[in-house]
Amino acid sequence: MGFENYWSDVRSVGWFTHSTLLTAHAVESVLPNRSAECFRLSGGEQRRPREFTSIQYRPDPPVDRSYLHPLRLLLLDLIGSSDPITARQRTEIVNPPKLLFTSSEKLEASFLPELMPRSLVASEWSNLLSFGLAEKRTVLKPLDNAQSRDVHLIRWDSQSEIERAHEIVRLSTSGFRCPVMLQQYLDVIGQGETRLWFLDSDLLASARKVSRSGDFCLNMDKGDSLVCGELSNREQAAADLISSHLRRRKIRLAAVDLIEGQVTDFNFTSPGLLCEFERIRSQNLARIIVERLAQPSSDVA
């Protein structure tokens, strides 16, 4: 496509006395299926982030210190001593850093209450217990993780189950100190979960994630599958609302999961499964994404 392109390991980002540097490896060639071994990279050289027009920041969650600190170092070079939440920089980072710093993917659906299953975010046991007893079955989700890691289905209908729930919650909240999400269990998960991909608020593609084992927790890395299918009327209506929301929030690239038209997760730190979708549809979405993201958003100075 003619774009000069580089890859950098996020661990190479550092501040060296006077400036932030990263090790940039020029992408010399890529074979068609774009698997990891198909990329031929240069040996790498230290460069300043401000030398690049666009930075696609894609470390996988959890959104912890290993995710946030390199992002802060990038911004230190791009905007200097300005406030990283409000400042504008000439090198665009996708998605917007102020969003990545201040927002939780698990809570993003709260901006669309008509699409969000009943949910509670808390760390205090009494609040979590009350919600669990009212729901009978809940899904516990950490606020900063992804790919179904540390997600638990919890039952609250017997004393033994409540004792088990107490132990799970204690561990998940680091001793009832860190909030977690409890969410209404949607039993239609057995029919699968729909993944929507959005690019500059336009619906780019959709597919259904189907469990091989019938487990409530879907994970492509553990053998679950991705299949093509048409959106239902309810899913299409949800997609329209999500599109408007992403436009307002200036989220350029995102994946959103639906169960029966309800939002169960936003993914804007590292929206995945695109390669899997390309394989089942024999469609090159990467080209569409790169062409669009090569045009800077209006939020960049």
List key phrases describing it.
5-stranded antiparallel sheet; alpha+beta; single chain; 301 residues
Describe this structure in words.
- The chain is an alpha+beta fold and 301 residues long.
- The chain has seven helices and 16 strands.
- β6 (54-56), α1 and β7 form a beta-alpha-beta unit.
- The radius of gyration is 21 Å and the shape is globular.
- The two termini are 25 Å apart.
Quickly describe the structure:
The chain is an alpha+beta fold and 301 residues long.
Mean of residue pLDDT values: 91
Query: How many DSSP E strands?
Result: 16
Major beta sheet summary: 5 strands, antiparallel
Uncertain runs? none
Assembly context of the chains = single chain
Distance between the termini: 25 Å
Helix content: 25-40%
Proportion of residues in β-strands: 25-35%
Q: Helical region count?
A: 7
Order of helices and strands: EEEEEEHEHEHEEHEEEEHEEHH
- Quick one: overall form? globular
Strand and helix layout:
Elements: E1 6-7, E2 14-16, E3 19-30, E4 39-41, E5 45-47, E6 54-56, H1 65-79, E7 92-94, H2 97-102, E8 119-122, H3 125-135, E9 137-141, E10 152-155, H4 159-172, E11 180-184, E12 193-199, E13 202-210, E14 225-227, H5 233-249, E15 253-259, E16 262-267, H6 274-281, H7 285-293
